[in-house]
Hints:
mainly alpha, globular, 65 residues, 4 helices
Amino acid sequence: MAQVKTPVTVRLNPDLLxxxxxxxxxxxxxxxxxxxxxxxxxxxxxxxxxxxSGSVQAFKDNKNQ
Length: 65
């Protein structure tokens, strides 16, 4: 049975959001799926983004801002 997703509100820097949208489009993913995947990789300590096109790099580059 599929889990019901919970909507959340976040505030992102407009430049970061634009980068995330572009990365999601390059990966042929929805924005939600892209963010979920990036968060899951970050939590699990994964390094998939380093092995692929670097789509998740936007999150890593801006985490200290």
